[in-house]
Amino acid sequence: MATTIFQRILIVTLPVIIPAIAIAQEISDTIMPHELNEIVVHAPKVIHKADMDVYHPSRSAVDNSKNGMQLLQNLMIPTLNVNDALGSISAAGQAVQVRINGHKATIEQIKALLPETIKRVEWIDNPGLRYGETNYVLNFIVANPTVGGSLIAQAQPALNCAWGKYDASAKFNTGRSQWEIGGYFKLTENIKAHRDYSETFSWPDGMKLTRTETPLGGELNNSFGACWLSYNYVKPDTTVVYVQLAANRTFSDSNHYTGLLSLSNGENDIVLSDDSGSKGTTPRFFIYLEQHFAHSQMLVVDFSASLYTGHTYSTYLERGEDATGYITDVSTYIKDRNQAYGLEADYIKQWRSSKLTAGASYSANRNRSRYENLDGQIFHQRQDKVYLFAEYFQRINEFTLTAGIGAQYTDYMFKETNQGNHSWNWRPQVTISYRLNQDHQIRLSFQSWQTTPSLSQSNVTPQQIDGFQWRIGNPNLKTASSYSLALRYNFNIPRVNGSLGIRALNSPDAIAPYLYWNDNKLITSYENSRGLQTLAFSLSPQIDIIPDWLMTSGNIQYRIERMKGTGYKHYNHNWSGNVSLILRHWGFQLTGQYVRAQKELWGEKISWGENLSIIQLSYNWNKWQFGAGVIMPFGQYDQGSKMLSKWNTNEQHTRIDMKMPYISICYNLQWGHQKRGANKIINADANTDKSTAGRR
After folding, report:
1. pLDDT range class, residue 39, cuts 50, 70, 90
2. Which of 346, 449, 599, 628 is the most exposed place for a label (fewest CB within 10 A)?
3. Does residue 260 contact residue 270 with C-beta atoms inside 8 Å?
4. What's the CA gap between 213 and 198, in Å, rounded?
5. What is the pLDDT of residues 500-542, one digit of tens each?
């Protein structure tokens, strides 16, 4: 059904899209001399442009915020799920790439922004080719501050458990230079948790076995931190130099569960212990150069490098209730030393109503994994990617036409087995926008992207998971392509703005797991499947109930999915969404939020994230903000998955007592005269791969 609808949409729209292939996307930046802004008669809260929605912070939103994350939450962009308490940003269940003046940033760097310096926020739900493999982009445009330095510090500890967030950053200016130093720490230690789990194994000869797990206890840990030092030099409209040193550290990321297994064949109950986790450190280096030339031309070059050193482990034990020995004893311990390098160069030429961007990038991953549980065997994998693209943007009266074409070459190889794969993939992209008037816009966009096999998916080293199950990667996987067609209607009416949309997704050769039996072992491997098709309908409104006092925003989505692979065809449909409410007056702000997680089909598994609710009351006083709130004041925390394979059906629910009261204290100090930060508009990809120990 989803394929038929997708094909019909393509048949109707391709005659319109194909003539526009030579036309491409406007790229938003703040340093080009002649920015391509639409004509604005008045200043609504949101301006719908050809390739983005632009939000301008109100005075009350700035006054009630002490950092960039709080300001984003106060903007209440309908599609976004902004969680300041947990430090996360997502849209329709997907990750959002955040940027500051065009350069890729982290949540912690967003928190380090002064609200007074944020002039606008650009929300891009159909990113151009230069953004790489991402579904959504959020770009903070930061103008020249009026202060010469700043200090932002925040602490948010829970009152009933070892959970909290702590971060601080400071900026200093000398002439055309700016220095920044910052760091953060997220604490999650020994949080009580348990798992509801039931599984049924089916053998090819018809035999079945059901094992039901009764939880006996458990805990989780997720503590990590980072620090960074950056320098930027800005000579307006001439030269920008940006250099950063950073380091990320995962102190503990682990899950531990104990349970009692009851077997359907009448055998004695089994006590199990299931542990998994990882630790590691990743230092990073970035350097960026931007040079402007005559006739509105620009050349930008970016280099990045990172090194990951760490380990991942998994231990699974089974024993009889009265036995001293173990029925099953499985242990995996992998040490990684992985490197990544990225280099990108873009050329940008701008005219009055058009823009051309052409670029090339190269990224390299060099992975070294030592399996301690296999007598210290060492495995090496290399992966190289080359990406070329060109985009062109043109405005013609009420129409804006955007198109571009990219080509990606991927090559990866395992040294020990001399196995691997390489391929070329095309990446076309088109956007057509028509503005009925200032308050109504229709946008049709077609985009594509590639997904390369991960280290765990392609590694042929066998990993035992429990007494029945093993995982073995597939080194012959090919880079998979995905295609999306979206139609969106944006509207502004008195006190209400938002969008109504439909999106069709087709991933004809998506990389997905599949299961098969071999010598009484149930093997999980990976394949280029027969495809995933998705159709999603969404409504995202923002309503000013009482302007500057009471407002709400949210998103509701209905999703239909079908996926086919070796020996299976599965369907999934569900509702998801989020809603936020803000009430503020006299310096007080009451915030409420509820999230119903999206359920996603991938391979033969349906997975869902966190269903969350949060209430917080804060008060702003001079340079301080004081707050108190509760995570999960109502409802039950549930994160889990459901397996649909004919060989193994199971359902897992992770339960945590998330009713966490917390307090927050934020301090924002500014002084002197501060120069503008660097406007980095491209980013070379240098993300290291990591091994993953197999687990149930």
Report:
1. very low
2. 628
3. yes
4. 6
5. 999 999 999 999 999 999 988 999 999 999 999 999 999 999 9
Q: Which residue type occupies 477?
A: L
Give residues with Cβ within 8 angstroms of 257, minimum separation 6: 193, 194, 195, 215, 217, 218, 272, 273, 274, 275
| Residue 144 CA to its chain's centroid (Å) | 29
- Among 157, 143, 167, residue whose Cα is nearest residue 69: 167
Residues in the chain: 696
Whole-number CA gyration radius for the chain: 26
Short-list 420, 523, 506, CA closest to 465: 523
- DSSP labels for 593-621? EEEEPPEEEETTEEEE---EEEEEEEEEE
Per the CB < 8 A criterion, the answer to whether 519 and 484 are in contact is no
Distance from C-alpha of 655 to C-alpha of 195, rounded to nearest angstrom:
6
Q: Identify the CA nearest to 127 among candidates 220, 197, 26.
A: 26
Which one-letter amino acid corresponds to residue 418?
N
Q: How confident is the model at residue 37 (pLDDT cuts 50, 70, 90)?
A: very low
Q: In what order do the strands lie in the sheet with 511-518?
A: 463-464, 469-471, 521-528, 511-518
The DSSP output letter for 269 is: P
Q: Residue 224: count other Cβ atoms within 10 Å of its Cβ.
A: 17
State the burial class of residue 160 (Cβ atoms within 10 Å of its Cβ: 0-12, 13-18, 19+): exposed
Among 683, 555, 619, which Cα is nearest to 82's?
555
Q: Output phi, psi for 84, to 5 deg.
A: -70, -35
In this predicted model, what pLDDT tens digit does every residue of 447-505 receive, in sequence order?
898 888 888 888 888 888 888 889 999 988 998 999 999 999 999 888 898 899 999 99
For 200, residues 6+ apart whose C-beta sits below 8 A from its C-beta are 208, 209, 210, 211, 648, 649, 650
Residue type, 666: C
- The enclosing H or E element of 400 equals strand 399-414
How much is the pTM?
Answer: 0.78
The average pLDDT across 255-262 equals 92
For 16, the enclosing helix (H) or strand (E) is helix 2-17
What integer pLDDT is reported at residue 27 of this predicted model?
Answer: 29
* Short-list 410, 351, 301, CA closest to 684: 301
> 341: Cβ–Cβ under 8 A, 6 or more apart, which residues?
303, 304, 305, 363, 364, 686
Q: Contact, 419 vs 413, CB < 8 A?
A: yes
Q: Is-contact 351 307, C-beta < 8 A?
A: no
Q: Tokens for 566, please give them.
A: 């070796």
